[in-house]
Amino acid sequence: MKPALAAPERALSGYGRPGATEVPAMPAPGDFARQVIAWQRTHGRHTLPWQRTRDPYRVWLSEIMLQQTQVATVLGYYERFLQRFPDVRALAAAPQDDVLALWSGLGYYSRARNLHRCAQVVVAEHGGEFPRHSAQLAQLPGIGRSTAAAIAAFCFGERVAILDGNVKRVLTRYIGFDGDLAQATHERALWDHATALLPEDGIEAYTQGLMDLGATLCLARSPNCLICPVRDGCAAAREGRPERYPVKTRKLRRGSREHVWLWLRWRDRHWLVQRPEQGVWAGLWSLPEFDSTEALGAVSAGWPGQGEALPSFTHVLTHLDWTLHPRRWTFPADVAQPQLDRIVAASAERPLVHDGRGAGCRPAGTAAKAVRAAALSFSPPRPCRAGIRRRGRGARARRAAPSASAWPPAGSAGSRTSGWPPSRRCRSGRAPRTARRPCP
After folding, report:
1. Which residues form the domain of 275?
2. Is residue 436 in some structural domain?
3. Which of 186, 213, 244 marks a domain boundary?
4. Residue 15: pLDDT above 50?
5. Is the bond into 223 cis (omega within 30 degrees of 0)?
6. Does 40 map to a domain?
7. Which stretch of 11-20, 321-330, 348-357 has the lowest confidence by average pLDDT?
8. How confident is the model at residue 273, as a pLDDT?
9. More reliable by pLDDT, 28 or 202
């Protein structure tokens, strides 16, 4: 006969499963909090630039940048951002394009737009001072409950729980919480557990300790349980299956789309178009986009110059696979700029601007780098840095089958179709690859 479980284990073992009615017992907070605080003070991270301040502007900036992004990636962006926008008033007064340009490369660009909006609200409605309580902070644009709690704990010492991705992993494993976090009821229950575990004192070290545990030991894959300071009380360690926590069954539905990108060149100029305010890379600058090769052919018929079909590829984003067919058109150097501007303006649905070898260039997306890398005999301009995450799980821009539609269109001044490999390969000699960049 299988021995009966102790009361807390019996309650934990069935939670979140079909027909279960019991709620996991609240573990005693004292030992857990003391162990986390002692470990953080001895082994935790202490040299990160946002740890040496209680300025809510700097802590807020770091919390937003660290969402879905690793510390190593954030460090350089954090310093550059503070150099350009040293306080919340400077950020609020800046044009949004300047904010997006500095954010270029971190991905999830909705964070940068919300950051800008939040700074403007803080200046306009709070006199340039961040609220001191988490409930008020959570009312600001782009600040959720966990981010608000982190700011309030680190800057103002408020005794309040955080629950970001790392902390969810630590807590669900420690208490054996197998409720499905895709369901709001179970999410609220985990918040209750997180609040019950709070220490009476040392909230700053405790909060940082939970973050550090999740980032350095309690990893999603291959957690380092043997050196974890709370291993003795951890339900997942006792089970020997920590990777099964946290439980979240709802999966992201992936989609797919396909477009043609037009790369216009004239002398040392390259044309970009600002994307719509909604959708992928909202508000950023990118190559002009067409629904099909036929649509591009109808626009470019009769253009002077030479067209080339570059290798197609699939750009992998968080929620979709985006197949892109780059087409490059080079206008003759002897075409006068007024004539060229009229040609381009007549064919563009949205205003296009050109950059002189990258001067004043706006973010154009990582997929644009794959276009540049695949070009024949191309001496690239200073590249637009946009949307690259070089660390983390990573992803790629996969080469796709070339579009079957002919381009350049009949009647154009010149045409040339390039296949892979180009005469000037990338360093590896293989098809171009890019890092994954989640979309907003």
Report:
1. 255-417
2. no
3. 244
4. no
5. no
6. yes
7. 11-20
8. 84
9. 202
Domain shared by 48 and 186, yes or no: yes
Which residue in the list 63, 129, 158, 187 is annotated as catalytic? 63
Share of the chain above pLDDT 90, in %: 48
Please give the model's pTM, rounded to 2 decimal places. 0.69
Q: Has 289 been annotated as catalytic?
A: no
Q: What is the structure's pLDDT at 159? A: 97
